[in-house]
Design a protein that fits this description.
There is one protein chain. The protein has about 425 residues and is α+β, with helices and mostly antiparallel strands. Helix content is about 25%, strand content about 20%. The chain folds into two domains: about 1-310, Zn peptidases (Aminopeptidase, 3-Layer(aba) Sandwich); about 330-425, Pdz3 Domain (Roll). It is built from ten helices and 17 strands. Strands 1, 2, 3, 4, 5, 6, 7, 8 and 9 form a nine-stranded mixed sheet that branches. The radius of gyration is 21 Å and the shape is globular.
Length: about 425
């Protein structure tokens, strides 16, 4: 019965996607999230049964949206996985799959491309991804916000662009729509595609990446990368949507797939809804999302894509931060090490400002609090989210470390026993 219900829901979403001229509504966007975050896909772990089923689902949505397969007649770009999954199981010998479709442009810009992306993989099962049997309740990470939300906006953008977008411009860039696999295990899917592009890399003018856009807990949509080419600042502001508060940042760093292309000197824009309490927990379910937030992001992203496609001039990349600050998600070290904090992405301070602390986390046990600015971790200086990530992953779970924070003008030291992500509840 459950399989039948899931099949009906998939059919309904696919039917909607194929309806010419229909505008996506929040309920349909949530329906897609519900499919991706459901127990049948078991958290979409990279290389798992649920992950491959999720890729099949995204390919069906791309086809229904009228895209063309981008990978030599196939929707899929397969690549070998390596390292460990979030459950600790080795990934060697498993295969990830990027899902990619193309929408041709028109006029003199048709040979130039915008890559629009949102990763579909998540953390998988807490009991390991070696089985294809449905998981027990609370034994998998649904990943509704991270990043089923981004995928449903990606599909909505494909529908929007297929209908011609706003203005019916006669000259516009082609679009490569990609849902990456392997993001959660070190940007492996985007790294592979960067070396095996379905279109010439030198024809790629821009990347728009969306990750975790189903909630805006701080009331803002964070748009970073507006300094990676001169035109982006004006475009990002011009695309503004009524009632949507934008937090714009020049740099392109953040731990998601656009960073792969920023390092290759391609201008990037990153859309992110900010920290939220269900992050990387079994509670990240479809019903925790804000459908109005999804709708606002979809409208904004549609306007953004239209403007980037129609930008007449070249889009030369420019550096916005020292190379050492551009640390990818695949930082060397232990990805399982856990402190239990959420960053404040709008702080504008030197250090890692804590936006929130998870209940029952090592940070909570030590007495860290929202508003603290973490400046040293285990003897390593912390100046931003990148250096915090590098310092944290240099230690294993169970390691006691000294942390220095600034609170109310005072410097305070705390000793924290770092935890393991698998122990979160």
């Amino acid at each position: 019965m459950k399989r039948m219900a899931m099949g009906i829901l998939l059919a309904a979403v696919a039917a909607f996607a194929g309806t010419a001229g229909a505008a996506a509504v929040p309920e349909t966007m949530l329906a897609r999230v519900r499919v991706l975050a459901g127990p049948d896909l078991a958290g979409r772990g990279a290389g798992s049964c649920g992950g491959h089923a999720a890729g099949d689902t995204v390919a069906r949505w791309f086809a229904a949206a009228g895209l063309q397969p981008a990978c030599r007649g196939s929707w899929f770009q397969e690549f070998p996985l390596y390292g460990q999954g979030w459950s600790g199981q080795p990934l060697d010998g498993r295969t990830g799959r990027n899902v990619a479709g193309i929408l041709p442009g028109s006029g003199p810009l048709a040979t130039r491309y915008v890559l629009v992306s949102a990763h579909y993989d998540h953390l998988g099962r807490s009991d390991g991804d070696s089985t294809c049997a449905p998981p027990a309740p609370d034994a998998y990470y649904p990943g509704a916000n991270d990043n089923a939300s981004g995928v449903t906006v990606l599909v909505d953008l494909a529908l929007h662009a297929r209908r011609g977008g706003a203005g019916q411009a006669e000259v516009r860039r082609s679009v490569l729509f990609v849902s990456f696999d392997g993001e959660e295990v070190g940007l492996q899917g985007s790294a592979y595609m960067a070396g095996h592009m379905p279109v010439p890399l030198d024809s790629l003018d821009a990347v728009i990446n969306m990750d975790t856009v189903g909630q805006m807990g701080q009331g803002k949509l964070y748009v970073s990368g507006i300094g990676t080419t001169a035109a982006f600042a004006g475009i990002a502001r011009a695309a503004g949507w009524q009632g949507l508060d934008l937090s714009l940042a020049p740099g392109g760093w953040s731990g998601s797939d656009h960073m792969t292309f920023d390092r290759l000197h391609v201008p990037v824009l990153f859309l992110f809804g900010g920290p939220y309490p269900q992050y990387n927990r079994p509670a990240d379910t479809w019903d925790s999302l804000d459908s109005l937030a999804l709708d606002k992001v979809a409208h904004y992203a549609g306007a953004l894509l239209d403007l980037v496609r129609q930008e007449a001039g070249p889009l030369p990349w420019r550096e916005t931060a020292p190379p050492e600050a551009a640390v990818e998600t695949a930082v060397e070290g232990n990805r399982r090490t856990w402190l239990g904090t959420m960053p404040d992405f709008d702080s504008g301070v030197s250090g890692y400002k804590i936006g929130g602390v998870f209940d029952g986390s090592p940070a909570a046990a030590a007495g860290l609090a929202a508003g603290d600015v973490l400046v040293r971790l285990g003897g390593k200086e912390v100046t931003d989210l990148a250096t915090f990530t590098r310092a944290l992953r240099s230690f294993d779970p169970g390691s006691p470390v000294e942390i220095t924070v600034l609170r109310g003008g005072r410097s305070l030291n705390f000793t924290v026993v770092l935890g393991d992500r698998s122990d979160r509840r």
